[in-house]
Design goal:
The structure is a single chain. The protein is mainly α. The chain folds into two domains: about 5-65; about 70-180. It is about 75% helix and about 5% strand. It is built from seven helices and two strands; from the N terminus they run H-H-E-E-H-H-H-H-H. The chain has helices at about 5-35, 40-60, 75-90, 100-115, 120-135, 145-160, 165-180, and strands spanning about 65, 70. A two-stranded antiparallel ribbon has the order 1-2. Helix 3 (about 75-90) packs antiparallel against helix 6, helix 3 (about 75-90) packs parallel to helix 7 and helix 6 (about 145-160) runs antiparallel to helix 7 (about 165-180). The chain is rod-shaped, with a radius of gyration of 24 Å. The mean pLDDT is about 90. Keywords: Membrane, Transmembrane, Transmembrane helix.
């Protein structure tokens, strides 16, 4: 089941619980005016609130927000791991005439590993291997090629998450911005 389907189901359950609680409140007012027992209406309110709480917990436990888009938690951690390692692999090679550091080489290997183990297509694996080869085998890597390959990997990954081109563009833009950030001075 896709993330968007799960989100819709959780929102339906949440709305249903809110509707039940609201119906219980209306029933409570009606029973109070007619001087009848309040217990049945209170039971309906408690059930509705319970359903709302369960739906809220499911939402919190299953999803995280990345660039304003709700994604499954495992996808969120895959995205952040990919972008963090991509950023780390490019950090030392952003400055001209700088050799690639061992940390950057390790980060590029991590990117290849993540792409390989997140079920991405073979084309993404080839792009990751090409980027890794540039960063590990060349004294002066072609940074533009590495960035382009990373952008293609992210684009293909986000296409697998959602079918909306607008959402893919939003996620990709945010991720590429995180990858391309200049290294922070310590």
């Amino acid at each position: 089941m896709s993330a968007s389907t799960e989100i819709i189901l959780i929102e339906i359950v949440f709305s249903l619980g809110a509707l039940i609680a609201l119906g219980g409140l209306v029933g409570l007012v009606w029973t109070k005016r007619h001087r009848q027992a309040l217990r049945p209406a209170m039971t309906v309110i408690v059930c509705g609130v319970g359903i709302v709480i369960i739906a809220s917990l499911l939402n919190v436990l299953l999803f995280k927000t990345y660039a304003g888009v709700r994604v499954k938690k495992n996808q969120y951690y895959e995205i952040t791991s990919l972008t963090t390692n991509m950023h780390a692999s490019l950090a030392s090679s952003q400055a001209p005439h700088q050799p690639v550091t061992p940390q950057a080489k390790k980060a590029s290997r991590n990117v290849t590993y993540l792409v390989d183990h997140t079920g991405q297509p073979a084309q993404s694996k080839r792009w990751a291997q090409t980027a890794q080869a540039q960063l590990t085998r060349h004294q002066v890597p072609n940074v533009a090629l590495v960035k382009r390959n990373y952008q293609k990997i992210l684009h293909q990954y986000f296409q697998g998450i959602t079918s909306s081109t607008k959402t893919v563009t939003k996620l990709e833009t945010h991720a590429v911005t995180r990858v391309d950030q200049a290294p922070r001075a310590k």
